[in-house]
């Protein structure tokens, strides 16, 4: 073998032929879309998991707020045309109003009128907590504060457990109004905008002061 032939052979052994390069490029062109699709799918999965975790975190926070306020509802007596000596607790299927204390770092603390309901804020349906001083003058809404507890809410279904009178057994009711006692428990079921599936599982909250009234 002469020197020229040896040099050509060495070049072929140390490098790639044109055919090998073209084959490699073709393989990379086939693999690249699959790799990109895999990355995109991974990112979409991550984003879905992150969004779900965020929704669950907001739901847990909302449940903590509802549980705290409802459980600490107070049997404040008010005389109304419908019932003398009734407690201030207006429970309906779609909203509930009651009196509870707020901590000192929130609006100075004290007795507050609380309302939990589904409402429209901007263009979005939400689960809303509104509260204001219990002794405020009717018609003055300057001191009403609102907290959005959940978004994407179509409706809220609320139930009330207790005995309507001393002669009846405790049971679930879709309203609790003008009663001399607080309900023993309050149940929340928050529905999505499609009005089919609950945003969270049923939340049942005991009313602590109810057991002290009887």
TrEMBL record:
Return the InterPro entries for the record: N_methyl_site, Pilin-like
Q: Which domain of life is it from?
A: Bacteria
Query: Which SUPFAM superfamilies does this chain map to?
Result: Pili subunits (SSF54523)
Q: Please tell me whether the keyword tRNA processing is annotated for this protein.
A: no
Q: Which UniProt keywords apply?
A: Membrane, Transmembrane, Transmembrane helix
Q: Where are the transmembrane segments?
A: 15-36
Record's keyword annotation contains Transmembrane helix? yes
Q: What is this protein called?
A: Prepilin-type N-terminal cleavage/methylation domain-containing protein
| Organism this protein belongs to | Sedimenticola selenatireducens
């Amino acid at each position: 073998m002469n020197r020229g032939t040896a040099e050509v052979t060495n070049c072929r052994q140390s490098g790639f032929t044109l055919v090998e390069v073209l084959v490699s490029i073709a393989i990379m062109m086939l693999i690249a879309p699959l790799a990109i699709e895999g990355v995109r799918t991974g990112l979409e999965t991550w984003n879905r998991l992150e969004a779900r975790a965020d929704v669950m975190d907001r739901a847990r926070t909302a449940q903590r707020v509802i549980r705290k306020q409802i459980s600490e509802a107070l049997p404040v007596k008010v005389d109304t045309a419908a019932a003398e000596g009734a407690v201030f607790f207006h429970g309906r299927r779609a909203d509930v109003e009651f009196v509870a204390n707020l901590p000192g770092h929130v609006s100075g603390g004290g007795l507050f009128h609380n309302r939990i309901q589904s409402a429209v804020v901007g263009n979005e349906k939400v689960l809303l907590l509104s509260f204001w001083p219990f002794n405020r003058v009717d018609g003055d809404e300057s001191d009403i504060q609102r907290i959005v507890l959940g978004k994407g809410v179509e409706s809220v279904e609320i139930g009330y457990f207790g005995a309507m009178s001393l002669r009846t057994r405790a049971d679930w009711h879709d309203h609790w109004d003008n009663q001399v006692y607080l309900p023993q428990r309050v149940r929340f079921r928050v529905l999505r905008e499609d009005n089919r599936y609950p945003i969270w599982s049923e939340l049942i909250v005991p009313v602590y002061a109810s057991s002290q009234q009887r």
